[in-house]
What does this fold into?
Amino acid sequence: MKELDHLIAESIMIYNCYRPHLSLNMNTPNQTYEQTKTELIA
It folds into this structure.
């Protein structure tokens, strides 16, 4: 069970931090989130 939790967490990290998404103009979800957050603060 511990190994499964680790693999799921790793998959989510890859999906959100390293894998560019076409629908996000080839940015990662994290890049889009940070950009949006910065724009809202400014």
